[in-house]
Amino acid sequence: MKLIRELWYIFSPRERVKSLALLCAMALGAAFEAAGVGLLVPFIAVVKEPGVVFEFPAARSLLSWLNIREPNDVVMAIGLGLVIVFVTKSAYLVLLYRWQFRYIFTQQTRLGRRLVMGYLNAPYTFHLQRNSAELIKATTETLQRFTSIFVTSLLNLLGELLVVTALIVLLIVIAPLATLGAVALLGVPTALLYGAMRHRLGSAGRLTEQSFTSIIQWTGQALSGIKETLVTGRASFFIERHGYHMSRLADCMRSLMFLSTIPRLVIDTLAVTTMVGVALLLLARGQDLQSIFPVLGLFAAAAIRLMPSASRIANGLATLRFHYAAMEVIYQALVDTEEYVTGPSGREPDRQPIFPFDRSLVLEHLSYRYPGMPESAIDDVSLEIPRGHWVGLVGPTGAGKTTLIDLILGLYLPTSGRILVDGRDMKDNVAAWQHNLGYVPQHVYLMDDTVRRNIAFGLGDDDIDDERVWQALRGAQIDDFVRLLPGCLDAMIGERGDRLSGGERQRLGIARALYRDAAVLVVDEGTANLDNETEAAIVRTLAGLKGEKTIIAISHRLAFVSDCDQIYLLKQGKLRNSGTMLDLVSADSAFREFIGSAA
Description:
The chain is α/β, with parallel strands linked by helices. Helices cover 65% and strands 10% of the residues.
């Protein structure tokens, strides 16, 4: 069965054992429930005729041992025993529910960590093929619905089925024919009703998943581009898109709630019909009212307990069908990220040894083609970057500069060719190679957090060295600015650094790379948003690192690459030429053309 197979995959071997233990405990709870109802029969019979107990030899011996001789004492004893059973049952069920809820939310924590680990360990190409709203929804709303609703409903459904089974067995022992008739009268219509609703519930559940993803996506897009949204007056566009998906979600939830109420109404009607039918059946068999009174009392007690259970079973089936789509999303997400958690690609980057880099970085006949694209973005590029050199990658837009940088960063693996670090293929341990890298992108990502935590990106407070933070800020020519902020290093910089200018965000990105104290600094248009004076200061800072750090830079600003040891000119994914600034100006017309366009 597909449901069982997917649940078996989602839960680890240890969790499967816990699940079986929980089911056994739930079975014991069901036995307690049945015993509580079953004891009502002798209690009702004794209340009606207390002296009847003394007609049974076994009962007489027990009562004699308990020194009970009067009929009223018998009623009190049986009543007290009934109370003890119900108190024990309730105490046990309290502990059982506590265990059940702890189990459910432990699963939520475990699966959430597993998903996030898989997503963050997945290669860059994995994220290029997915919308971030899809990943956010899977780790938040979908996971919450799977554990808090789907798993909870499944456990409750199994628990109710165990209780109902135990009570039906008890009733069959006492009145088999009437019980089987009642089960048929109650169960068959309920099964038919669920069969009629299941496809509609399943479709509504899948549409709910799509609607939640779209809501997160359109909300994120509207808020991420809030400046453009306000300036262009396009808020109504995003409001309409968001409202459309909210309306679809509301329709789905309305269907779930409406369809979930129908079984209860049907079951209530059938239960009353069943009670009357049992009474008429017993009378038709020639039994008098006095003799069937205890049996009817048992059926009444069982009905009182069974009706809520039957309603919860029907409601649970509807809920499971509706939220089955959430389980499918979690299952597929775990399958998609499994190799990044448990396979050879899964890794804890911060625990990897540093990849040795003492001599040179060599790109050997390197090519890369994006998935689904007809032509290679990088085509047979070979070059060598000695340790301690400053090299520049230049060329027109679309030349492949950023793709080449992403290959060096280990974000992509080459379609063909190799990247060798001191003669060792980088693919041997990409995570360890990345420990050598400090990266400054064109658009620096900043967290909605303090300056300190943004500079020491990803480190806990106890691991942050404030002196190194200030040293990195000085290197990026932004320490004076930070000293003027309220709280200095503790100043909050806003979501994506929106409280800062573009140049200030860029300099914080450079400071972050300097704090890492990496052997290789990769700068992708890292000074694009800086004024000439600040750029010159940054160039001087980087120039001072020559020999100590290896610097690989992309820039359209000639001032940034003029002092490079080597400049590589790329065009249409191929390496067109290389040399110093003077070499290329004097020997390459394409480079002179590039200079003219960049000036």
